[in-house]
Specification:
Low-confidence stretches of chain A: none
Radius of gyration of chain A: 27 Å
Order of helices and strands of chain A: EEEHEEEEHEHEHEHEHEHEHEHE
Largest interface: A-B, 132 and 132 residues
CATH topology of the largest domain in chain A: Rossmann fold
Largest sheet of chain A: 5 strands, antiparallel
Number of helices of chain A: 9
CATH architecture of the largest domain in chain A: 3-Layer(aba) Sandwich
Helix content of chain A: 25-40%
Strand order of the largest sheet of chain A: 6-3-4-5-7
Structural class of chain A: alpha/beta
Number of strands of chain A: 15
Oligomer: homodimer
CATH class of the largest domain in chain A: Alpha Beta
Mean pLDDT of chain A: 89
Chain lengths: ~350, ~350
């Protein structure tokens, strides 16, 4: 008979959390498991930035942790008891155990680990959620091509480290942004980034420009704030920006507190998984025949209408154009020449 | 022997253009055509918002019009003389004739028109660049699904009108934003939008929320400014925002003049055709096996490394987490339990 020690959320921080926002509680271990549940003893707990948002009482992509509730988190643990035919005591699993020594978990959310295939902590890092986040964001959204320049913020973090290494394996020039000389050295020497910059450097914008002589094709955003500001002017046409985190913003508290329109937009891009994509029609020239096949009969039979605002006389062209910018036209503005 | 009347750019406007920014010039018609060129007499000239940007001396997706140079524009015209076997006098063509009565054009940039298939002005509207812009942005980026809500700014303009009608044909709820009662009535009655709102209405944000009880799934952006501000809070998860124009911003002049960080970002999204897309890793769960197959051997052989920052003792969890948010960890932060 053992007690379970757990960290619960004691109060919601307004900005930076403090230790007093958490409370260590001791409760008896549950004796009863429902069918399909296992009792898991935590061996490793992953700590991740997203947890900061879960401490706010704000709508996000996951519900907030309630006051008095155990803090959420992914864990590697060992099964002690099982009410599932698929799991036996001694099995190693990764799952949502939270900040506690023991967790009762439904097996539906678990994945078994083979300790011989890779060290257990990698299930929380390079082969876990951070590694897969890097892979999905870089490969499926960023779509890096050989020779392109990929910039990674928080580049020695678990996501950023994987992004940089995966991009290098795709043949890209990789530029790390990290906090301090030690992390920058690690990014260059161990992670093999082509360049590494300290985000605390007052000359970050200039140094980033110098490190990206061909501009930036992919910026993997997991920081926000001033790094994003430095990146914007260097982005190439058709650059891709997977937005997977905004750690510099998390301590701003709820969305409305201290947020500029820009930080609010970026938060929405992240939380709502928005897609923004600029375009001009010539980017899609391969679809023009498809469009004309579809639309010509619909224009001919009146299903699709565009009102025409026809101005007679080429001498009236500038005035008509100025009216267009002021919204004075009504329909497609066309000048009819004599 | 005829003269050619043309509107050239006389000076670059700082904000709203005036008639004095253009100059009507009369020049003799060129007598010589090079091989592959035709002489075209303009019948219709399309006027479009993008022309405003071409008047600025700023990098955009097309080079600026030079001072003294004829203003650019798409025209429908009739071939008068031809040095191409593919074009004969009397052929009707659409091309980049510009703001002038006659143009010498290389045939590579021309498309022949059949006056019997559709009225000639439609080649500049519903079946021209605006119609195709609507189709490409809505169908290829917006990807509307039946039952979704599509909001269109400048909804009675040639692009917006096509967007709304195409979205209705896809089974979407369509909401128009237009300037004034007459345009709103036209949007409802002729274009068959489900709702229409006047962007000048001080209660635009509240009325837009009421018109979109299920939120917004696609916002076709061609205006910018306050309409965008009203749209942002209503966007649903995974909303798509094709950005094809920012007419409310064009008179701001060069990028740096009067631009906020937000307007500067949106201008870059448009001009550079950027893709922004928020994500969380669970959105890509179908790729997890692909990731593990790819990454596991690369982690095992050391090609992919993620440094682990392991903190011993569950009692240190909150302090470790607070350090994570402050950037004090170095590598994937993991708590090792006893």
């Amino acid at each position: 008979m053992t007690d379970n020690r757990k960290w619960v959320l004691a109060r919601r921080p307004a900005a930076e959390p403090s230790v007093a926002d958490f409370r260590l509680e001791v409760t008896p271990l549950p004796q009863q498991l429902a069918p399909g549940e296992v009792l898991v003893r935590t061996k490793f707990l992953s700590l991740d930035p997203y947890m900061r948002w879960r401490m706010n009482d704000a709508k996000s992509y996951a519900r907030p942790v309630a006051l008095g509730e155990v803090m959420v988190g992914t864990t590697v643990g060992e099964v002690l008891r099982s009410e599932s035919a698929d799991y036996a005591p001694g099995d190693l699993v990764v799952g949502a155990g939270g900040w506690q020594e023991y967790a009762v978990l439904p097996v539906a959310g678990l994945r078994k680990l083979d300790a011989a295939a890779a060290p257990l902590p990698t299930a929380l890092g390079s082969l876990g959620m951070p590694g897969f986040t890097a892979y999905a964001g870089l490969m499926k959204i960023g779509q890096p091509k050989a020779g392109e320049t990929v910039v990674v913020a928080a580049a020695t973090g678990s996501v950023g480290a994987m992004v940089g290494q995966l991009a290098r394996l795709q043949g890209c020039r990789t530029v790390a942004i990290a906090g301090g000389a030690e992390k920058c050295a690690y990014a260059l020497e161990t992670l093999k980034f082509d360049a590494a910059l300290d985000h605390r450097d007052p000359a970050l914008a200039e140094k980033l420009a110098a490190a990206c002589p061909q501009g930036i094709d992919v910026y993997f955003e997991n920081v926000g704030g001033k790094v994003w500001d430095a990146v914007i002017p260097l982005l190439n046409d058709f650059a891709r920006i997977p937005v997977c985190g905004l750690i510099s913003q998390y301590n701003l508290g709820n969305a409305a507190d201290g947020a500029t329109p820009m930080t609010a937009l970026m938060r929405d891009v992240l939380v709502k998984r928005l897609l923004l994509r600029g375009f001009i029609v010539t980017d899609f020239v391969e679809y023009r025949d498809e469009f004309l096949r579809y639309a010509t009969p619909l224009v001919a039979d009146g299903t699709l209408q565009v009102r025409e605002d026809i101005v007679d006389g080429m001498e009236n062209t500038p005035e008509a154009f100025i009216g267009l910018l002021a919204g004075r036209n009504f329909g497609k503005l066309i000048v009819r020449f004599a």
